[in-house]
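Archive entry. Fields below.
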Amino acid sequence: NAGVTQTPKFQVLKTGQSMTLQCAQDMNHEYMSWYRQDPGMGLRLIHYSVGAGITDQGEVPNGYNVSRSTTEDFPLRLLSAAPSQTSVYFCASSSQGGGDGYTFGSGTRLTVV
Amino acid sequence: AQSVAQPEDQVNVAEGNPLTVKCTYSVSGNPYLFWYVQYPNRGLQFLLKYITGDNLVKGSYGFEAEFNKSQTSFHLKKPSALVSDSALYFCAVRDWGLMDSNYQLIWGAGTKLIIKP
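PREDICTED_STRUCTURE:
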């Protein structure tokens, strides 16, 4: 049972490039989300989904897109990378309305130069 | 407004001493409360949760937390700290009083715990 799998673990982008961060879970969780973690800022919610075909914005959605075509996958797209998007990105999933908490991926460390 | 506060950015404890990491919350309904730990360059790992019942909850790695409804607190504790407990600790709450909370957990800012040999 793999849990939540994020790829890649590390990535360096040039300003203006686009890329997709992958997230997959094998627990049949209906809820999936993306967070970014910056020093001194804690966790900030970017986008989330409560089921296939349903997505919504979190606290800091600008510059990011998501889609949820299947229950298992929730990719995060950076449309035109900016240095301000340098961060560590975490994907998390949950079931039971969030009552069991979240399962997190191991993270993607992104640097935009 | 719903919120979680971890009033200490950093807690320093000598190895073998008891440790406490503080968390207070504000929600409109009944809370589900969680503690997570993040070791360097790793994702967040679940430690323990409070849903209902006994106010003292036991979790992984010898940690426990006490739910205090009157003080709206959920402090994380361990009787004897280990150097390997050094990590970043996050408190989170699920507010069941919100109609449209959509699985959302409200997160504290995190507390860095440093255990000195």
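CURATOR_NOTE: Chain B has a mean pLDDT of 92.
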